[in-house]
Task: structure prediction
Amino acid sequence: MSRRARLVFFTAAAAALAVTLGAGLAGLPSFGSQITSYARMLNELAPRQRHVTDVVSAISFDYRGIDTLFEEFILLGAVTGISVLLRPLSDETRQLAEDKAPDRTIPPPSPAVWLLAVFLSSLLVLTGIETVTHGQLTPGGGFQGGVILASALYVVYLGTNYVTIERFQPQPLLEATDGVGAFGYVFIGLLGLLAGVGFLSNVVGLGVTGNLISGGTIPLLNLVVGVEVAASFAILASEFLDQTAVIRPRRR
Amino acid sequence: MSVLAYGVVAWLFLVGVYGVVTSRNLIHLVVCLSVSQSATDILLLEIGYRTGGHAPVFVSLPAHPGPAVDAVMQALALTDVVVGAAVTALLLALAVQVHKRAGTLDPDALRATRD
Result:
């Protein structure tokens, strides 16, 4: 199909879609007028029933915890897929830059960048842990905090030399951490079955509303999700960086 | 107000699809797809919004009287963001391998190499 034909086809399809979408959106209740009774009920119930202050976390990790289980496995599946896609292929080889040219040294990053990386990475680790552990109290949780933790590693890459890190980076440890995080969610879910109630039931002591340790299984699930997401994004970064820094076509 | 709020959703979705259709670069195409996908985030948050509502975080209640917005929609938007990130990363990995095999990222040029 030529570009012009494709554009004509798109215009016709987009016009039809815009009309249908417009009709559908017009049928929605007007913006800001009301929320569903389910949501009103959860806003009322969650703080009293689950001893949390952040209702979004209570919904993600308790009332609809099974959704988040699958969501976590989607992430795990995607990372597995990327690891498979970006492995060294049959005509490629892993070769570090200093092996290729041993007589030349890689220039270190400027001291300013190094200093910034040291400050920023420690701050990011702190913010990440804070976000993960306070998921049941304030906005945040395992997913958000995990990404912040992984970005601390990205800053370390920036402030040093990726090829040097690659030599010491324990890839199997990262992959094992990812798996432990994903399985931890299932394990905490199984606690409910062991206690004689349903899968992913909140069976741990609920604590006092507003305390750091409150909400039963919600902070535990936030923790394992945080571990899984942080490991996933760390693997993601190293797989993509390997493509430019380490993996090269095999010389014939 | 409703027209503007929901109009943004339709516009963002269509603009993203337009980018996908006319794209000349696979990485640009992936970015367009995430623009399109962000329309669903905005729609979810808009459905859950309530005029004058505060965030569904009940920490310092006396300072924030009034109703809270829909927390279910915010949880769904969170799921949407995570799945979107996973899809984007997977597609970018595919783009890397396509570039290695075909030497180009132009979808039209890819079709020429296949024939």
In short: Chain A has ten helices and two strands. Chain A touches chain B through 55 residues (CB under 8 Å). The mean pLDDT of chain A is 89.
